[in-house]
């Protein structure tokens, strides 16, 4: 028989549990009064044993409450009670798991969620809680039920919990003690303790001290289960919030192939604020972003959503990367005194120029893989995290020829509980050597291979870009003076370029739309107007000027000569739009290369 609480790791053993003798038996010699010094020692030792026992119960309670994960909480409960109080333990929790933020009402079914020291009930399935049953009445109580010693009938509450067939495998004389697990608002399950009969065949039993100990720890267990369910609910809400704020699909601009991965931290870790994004820009360029809000909470996820939205807005203004970070820093400070700091890398890739421009705000450096397969951690000015305030950021421009690749990531990939940041960064760089032959999806998968087995304390965001570029022969670009004859010249230049590319069937429509856009541009421009044609899987035309006023379509009256240009573009183009830039705006349209619409 176990007569002590199981000592916790690294802590002194608990004092023995003083069991009452069975009825009919005399007091033990240890409990009999005695004279002399021994009596004084026993008398003075009682408070010490009581203090040690209370300390042991406190250690057991802290162990039960040491995790926020439901499975780990039930496991700790079993380790505390087995074999200290019982030979085996079965924990049944209501199914489905309730939302403990509000009163879920009485349970309708229980399910075995954990066993310790026995296989009893592992295949029991759902156990219904029938109206008027012993189980329903037991769940409504907050006091232990039992102890019950199994006899030949093998019925009652234990049969409702596990089934008569499962109980039939227990020897006669086995003692059972059932204890309800109550949360803060409702019953959450049942705890069934099993004590097998001794070898001499006498029935097993739970004395009042055992029952009181088990009831005390079951109370802590119920509250710990309630806490784990509340945390799980908060984790799921935060995870859903964060995922809803991340892009489900990235755009696939021409000249670059993109892939992403997002891995939340394990259930025991709180949700963080990692994010990634890709934003198409004028001139077939693309902005690439990864960021990480410091801290782990619902607030971190919400701040991440605000910063990502701000980054999208700033990217639409076509600001340089360091200017984007500067304005993000201002936005973070406007969130208030309780704002969270965040790290961020912002890069802009130009597939026509074959270059990438990057700025860093306290983030881990990206890995650039050259066309020859050589990988390097980019040596960028580190900058301060977003939200510090009063810090300058700077951009670095680097060559990114076709065949090269870039991986942006958050620190959860390279920094773990057992691996420092520097070691993880070098391990990642070495792992990605030769990654120029990989697709972006394979690049992400290869990067994740450096993760050690076990729980992840932080979430991970990856954004991989394979740079293909756009050949110079597929680009035509002109600067045109804002004169009255400029629309006619623009039509002729566009027509010559399309015929050189073998796109004669697009000439008529394209010349008409180019003429309309250039006509609108020279009416507002004070500097040369830009005209660019880019041939990829479609034809894209961009007309830029230095006026920030964006054009809007409007219904022209019967007598008006103006106001029909954008209506013509809208009818002839497959897609069109306008983007405000730092130095003006760009109006663009796209057409498919195949004949017909």
General description of the model:
By secondary structure, the chain is of the alpha+beta class. The chain has 13 helices and 21 strands. The strands form four sheets. The protein has a six-stranded antiparallel β-sheet. The protein has a five-stranded antiparallel β-sheet with strand order 7-16-15-12-13, covered by helices on one side. A hairpin with a 5-residue loop joins strand 12 and strand 13. It starts with 36 loop residues before the first helix and ends in a 5-residue tail after the last strand.
Rg for CA atoms: 36 Å
The helix fraction, in percent, is 25-40%
Mean pLDDT: 83
Low-confidence region ranges: 1-43
- The total count of strands amounts to 21
> How far from one another are the termini?
86 Å
Shape: elongated
Question: Given the helix and strand composition, which structural class is it?
Answer: alpha+beta
Number of helices: 13
Question: What is the strand content?
Answer: 15-25%
Q: Walk across the major sheet and give the strand order.
A: 3-2-1-6-5-4
Tell me about the biggest sheet? 6 strands, antiparallel
In short:
32% of the residues lie in helices and 24% in strands. The protein has 597 residues and is of the alpha+beta class. Helix 11 runs antiparallel to helix 12.
List descriptors.
13 helices; 32% helix; 597 residues; alpha+beta; 21 strands; disordered N terminus; six-stranded antiparallel beta sheet; five-stranded antiparallel beta sheet
């Amino acid at each position: 028989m176990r007569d002590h609480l199981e000592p916790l790791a690294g802590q002194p053993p608990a004092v023995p549990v003083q069991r009452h003798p069975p009825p009919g038996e005399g007091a033990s010699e240890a409990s009999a009064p005695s004279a002399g010094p021994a009596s004084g020692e026993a008398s003075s030792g009682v408070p010490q044993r009581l203090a040690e026992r209370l300390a042991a119960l406190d250690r057991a309670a802290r162990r039960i409450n040491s995790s926020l994960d439901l499975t780990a909480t039930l496991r700790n409960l079993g380790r505390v009670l087995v074999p200290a109080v019982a030979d085996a333990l079965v924990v049944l929790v209501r199914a489905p798991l309730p939302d403990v933020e509000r009163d879920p009402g009485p349970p309708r079914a229980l399910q075995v969620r954990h066993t310790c020291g026995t296989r009893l009930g592992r295949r029991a399935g759902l156990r219904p809680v029938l109206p008027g049953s012993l189980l329903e009445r037991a769940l409504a109580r907050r006091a232990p039920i039992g102890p019950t010693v199994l006899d030949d009938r093998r019925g009652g509450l234990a049969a409702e919990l596990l089934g008569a067939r499962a109980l039939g495998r227990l020897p006669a004389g086995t003692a059972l003690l059932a204890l309800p697990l109550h949360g803060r608002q409702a019953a959450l399950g049942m705890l069934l303790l099993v004590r097998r009969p001794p070898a001499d065949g006498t029935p097993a039993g739970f004395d009042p001290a055992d029952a009181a100990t088990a009831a005390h720890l079951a109370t802590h267990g119920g509250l710990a289960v309630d806490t784990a369910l509340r945390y799980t609910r908060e984790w799921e809400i935060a995870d859903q919030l964060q995922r809803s704020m991340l892009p489900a699909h990235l755009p696939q601009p021409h000249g670059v192939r993109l892939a992403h991965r997002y891995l939340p931290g394990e259930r025991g870790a709180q949700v963080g604020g990692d994010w990634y994004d890709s934003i198409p820009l004028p001139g077939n360029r693309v902005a690439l972003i990864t960021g990480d809000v410091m801290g782990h909470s619902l607030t971190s996820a919400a701040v991440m959503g605000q910063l990502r939205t701000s980054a999208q807005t700033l990217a639409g203004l076509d600001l340089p990367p360091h200017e984007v970070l500067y304005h993000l820093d201002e936005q973070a400070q406007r969130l208030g005194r309780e704002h969270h700091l965040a790290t961020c890398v912002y890069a802009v890739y130009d597939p026509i120029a074959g270059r990438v421009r990057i700025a860093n705000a306290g983030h881990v450096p990206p890995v650039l893989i050259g066309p020859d397969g050589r990988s390097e951690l980019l040596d960028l000015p580190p900058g301060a995290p977003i939200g510090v305030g009063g810090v300058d950021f700077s951009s670095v421009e680097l060559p990114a020829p076709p065949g090269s690749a870039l991986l942006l990531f958050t620190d959860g990939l390279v920094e773990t509980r057992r691996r420092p940041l520097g070691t993880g960064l070098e391990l990642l760089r070495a792992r990605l050597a030769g990654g120029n032959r990989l697709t972006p999806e394979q690049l992400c998968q290869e990067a994740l291979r450096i993760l050690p087995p076990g729980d992840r304390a932080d979430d991970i965001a990856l954004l991989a870009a394979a740079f293909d570029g756009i050949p110079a022969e597929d680009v035509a670009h002109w600067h045109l003076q804002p004169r009255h004859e400029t629309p006619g010249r623009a039509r002729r230049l566009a027509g010559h370029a399309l015929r050189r590319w073998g796109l004669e069937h697009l000439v008529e429509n394209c010349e008409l739309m180019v003429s309309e856009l250039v006509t609108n541009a020279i009416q507002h421009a004070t500097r040369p107007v830009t005209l660019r044609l880019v041939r990829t899987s479609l034809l894209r035309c961009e007309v830029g000027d230095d006026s920030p006023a964006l054009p809007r379509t409007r219904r022209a009256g019967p007598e008006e000569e103006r106001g029909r240009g954008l209506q013509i573009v809208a009818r002839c183009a497959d897609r069109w739009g306008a983007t405000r830039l730092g130095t003006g705006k760009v109006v663009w349209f796209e057409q498919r290369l195949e004949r017909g619409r």
